[in-house]
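thought: user wants a sequence for this fold. calling inverse folding tool.
action: design(structure=
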């Protein structure tokens, strides 16, 4: 058990977890990024509901949503860290893990601040159906992401996270990785999306697109980014300029992690200020207010080389999924 508020210690333990030989491509980073995103992506700016507080996926109502299939593995991976640092809220842990994962895979540093609180029951969990449906197109993407408060450029930048990880037939029904290096964060996704020829995959599964060798894949929502005249402009910019992509992704992912977060006396999103807030909500959770309000310094710093080698220690103890 670390000292409450020692986020640096949490980060160090998260880094030790990342490499996991035998699981997918040998790294749990991609699924941690998906956990952080699905946690935050329920936000509705009109009602101020959903978002990255609450850790609602601990309850069947949100955790059992088919849109979240597979994320139980991510939550299980993080359980030893929660046990060791029991003072941290699940919602802080999940969001922090996503940010640390991106950095550990060579991505940009993401500004992250603590202070999220966890629901004590499932009554404030928003209805299902707020996450994007991969089978649909650009109109759907705009509906979903505008609802969270994002614009076209931000939708494309966020989609660049599909540079990481893969689709699993037993989770979403789709299959395969988007790029050849799914545990290295880069702008490859935009390059392959733009420069390769994508044809409907010949198989029994749902419509997805395949490259000529049928090694890489794109979802219908990924293809929508090159069929839409506004989105494609940003795909081109990010395909040509990785630095610009990293900068924009860092900003937009930090924004995503702040959606719906209410810290006592402040609403960092500037949206839905204190909407629906009850005295009961102010008391939710287990993060001491002083720790929640304390600005993070060290834990927010980019990784040092000393932190980079990700040891294999403790990995043998973790089960292969
Ligand atoms: C634009 C709308 C989006 C759709 C329709 C979508 C859909 C999907 C689907 C179907 C999967 C495969 C899940 C599985 O079978 O395991 C997936 C994986 C993933 N998504 Fe998205 N996604 C979207 C946006 C995002 C965003 C905004 C992020 C993060 C910023 C993200 C990050 C990821 C990651 C990292 C994975 C790989 C997970 C793994 O390897 O286990 N996605 N997404």
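)
observation: tool returned 321 residues.
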């Amino acid at each position: 058990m670390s000292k409450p508020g020692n986020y640096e210690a949490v980060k160090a333990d998260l880094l030790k977890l990342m490499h996991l030989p035998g699981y997918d491509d040998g790294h749990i980073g991609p699924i941690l990024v998906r956990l952080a995103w699905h946690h935050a992506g329920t936000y509705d700016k009109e009602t101020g509901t959903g978002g990255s507080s609450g850790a609602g996926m601990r309850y069947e109502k949100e955790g059992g949503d088919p849109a979240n299939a597979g994320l139980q593995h991510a939550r299980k991976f993080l359980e030893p860290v929660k046990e060791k640092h029991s003072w941290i809220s699940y919602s802080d842990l999940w969001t922090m893990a996503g940010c640390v994962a991106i950095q550990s895979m060579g991505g940009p540093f993401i500004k992250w601040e603590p202070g999220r609180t966890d629901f004590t029951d499932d009554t404030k969990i928003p209805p299902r159906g707020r996450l994007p449906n991969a089978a649909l197109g650009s109109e759907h993407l705009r509906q979903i992401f505008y609802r969270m408060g994002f614009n076209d450029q931000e939708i494309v930048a966020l989609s660049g996270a599909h540079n990481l990880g893969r689709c699993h037939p037993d989770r979403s029904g789709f299959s395969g990785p988007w790029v050849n290096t799914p545990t290295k964060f880069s702008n490859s996704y935009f390059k392959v999306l733009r420069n390769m020829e994508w044809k409907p995959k010949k198989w029994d599964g749902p419509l997805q697109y395949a490259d000529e060798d049928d090694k890489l894949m794109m979802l219908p929502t990924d293809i929508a980014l090159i069929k839409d005249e506004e989105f494609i402009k940003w795909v081109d910019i990010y395909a040509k300029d990785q630095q610009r992509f990293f900068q924009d992704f860092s900003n937009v992912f930090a924004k995503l992690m702040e959606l719906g977060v209410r810290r006592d006396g402040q609403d960092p999103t500037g949206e839905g200020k204190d909407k629906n807030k009850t005295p009961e909500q102010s008391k939710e959770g287990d993060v001491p207010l002083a720790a929640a309000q304390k600005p993070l310094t060290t834990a927010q710093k980019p990784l040092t080389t000393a932190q980079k080698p990700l040891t294999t220690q403790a990995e043998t103890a973790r089960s292969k999924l």
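thought: summarizing for user.
answer: Here is the designed sequence. The chain has two domains: 7-130+253-300, 138-246.
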